[in-house]
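Let's practice the habit of predicting before peeking. Look at the sequence and jot down your guess about where helices and strands might fall. Then scroll down.
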Amino acid sequence: MLVFESSENATPIELVSASDIKEWRKNQSDLVLAWADRSKFKGSANHYFTVPDERGFPARVVAGIGKSVNVESIGSLSQRLPAGEYCLDDVDPASIYTLALGWGMGSYQFSKYKTKEKKPDDKPRLFVGPDHASINEELSSMNLARDLINTSAGDLLPDQLESAVEDVCSKFDVSLNVTRGDELLRAGFRTIHSVGRASCSDPRLLDFTWGNDDSPKVAILGKGVCFDSGGLDLKSAAGMREMKKDMAGAAITLGLAQLIMYRNLNVHLRVLIPAVENAVSSNAYHPGDVITTYKGTTVEVGNTDAEGRLILCDALALAAESQPELMIDFSTLTGAARTAVGADISAMFSNDDEVANGLLEAGNDVLDPIWRLPLYAGYRESLKKSIADLSNIGSQSMGGAITAALFLEHFVAGTPWVHFDLMGSNTSTRPAHPSGGEAMALRAVFHYLQQRYGVAS
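Done guessing? Here is the structure:
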C-alpha cells in the first residue's frame, strides 16, 4: 500500500539499475558488497537485499529496477518485503510516480470474500509524500475494474453493475440514463434485449456523459456480460468457470471513465455499457434467430455464445449517431485473440492508423502492452453467408478475432474507432500484476487521451 504522509521511521530503498551495477559497486563498502554478492545482486528488477546496521536491524534495502524505470521495476516488492515502512531514496519525481504506481499495482489484493483480512500494519507500506497523492486516483481506477472483474457473478449481475456505475456517477455529479428490460425493445436495442432476456436480472443499457459540450467528443464502450453460459449453444463446464470476467470490458471502461473525470481531461465523454447475463431459460434467444439491430441491419444468430458483439453493435451504432471524434470499445470478445497474442497483451483493431499508432506508442510508454491485428477486408464475406444481412459469426473457423472486429466495424459508420479484444485477467502473478482481474489497456488509453487532449481549463 502507499502512504502520503512523511515518516521518520521509514527504511530507505536504494534503487540500482542493471546498467549501472558496475559503477554502483565502485562506491560500496566491503560489507555492502559482501551482502550483494551473497544475494547474487545484479540490479535485476525486484531483486533486493537488506543491509543491516551495527545492531543487525535493517538500515536500508538495495533493490534492482532492471534496465530502466517502469511500473514493473519494483512491482513485486510490495508483496515480498517484510511488513514495515519504506521510502524511495534519491529518486526524481517522475520516477517516483512510476515506481510507486507499480508498487501500488503489485500490492492489490481482492479480499472481499476472505474472512480474515491482513491489517495495514501487516503489509509493507511505501511513503511517497503528499506531492504524489494523485497516484491514488490511477490506482483506485484500476482497482475498481479489478474488483468488479473478480467479484463472483452471483454478486454482480446487471442490477449490481448498474449500481457500480451509479456509484461512480455520483462521485462526479453525473446523471446516469438507464434503458432497461422491455424499454430496450421500444428504443430499438433489440440485440441487447435478446441476449439478456433469459436472466432474472433484466438486460440494460447504461449511458452517461461528462465534460464540457464544446470539448472534443470521445465515446468509450464496454462489453458488460456479467456471466456467459454460452446461451443455448452452451459452454462446457471448464469454459464457463471463469465467465464472471466476461464483463471485464465494462469494468475497464468504468475505471477509465473515472480516471478521465478525476484528471479532468478536455473531452466531452460519453460512456455506454450494455449489461446482460447470457443465461439459459425458456425464453432464451436461439441459434438461427434473426434480430433487427438498432442500426436496422438484420443479424442471424450463428451462435448464441458470440453474444458480446451483439450487445456492442447496438451501443456502437448509438454512439456513432452523435459523430464523436473517437470511439473506443473494450471487450473480452474472442478466444481467438488470446490464441493470437496470449493473455498478457491486448489485441487492438482500428480503422484509423494515426490513432492506432498513437495507442501503440502509449502502451509502450507505460508498459501496458498492445498489439494491433488487421481489419482484413477479405474476411467480410464470411459474415454475409446468412439469410440475414449479416451473421454474428464467420463461416470459417479461422480468423475469429478478425471477423468479430469486422462485424463491429459495420456499426461504427466510419467514425474513428478502436476495438480492444482482451483477456481481462492475469492467469498468474507477475510484477505489478497479481493474478485475477486486470484493467488491461486502461493505462495505455488514458495516456494516449491525456497526450492528445490535455486537461480542461
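How did you do? The two ends are 32 Å apart (CA to CA).
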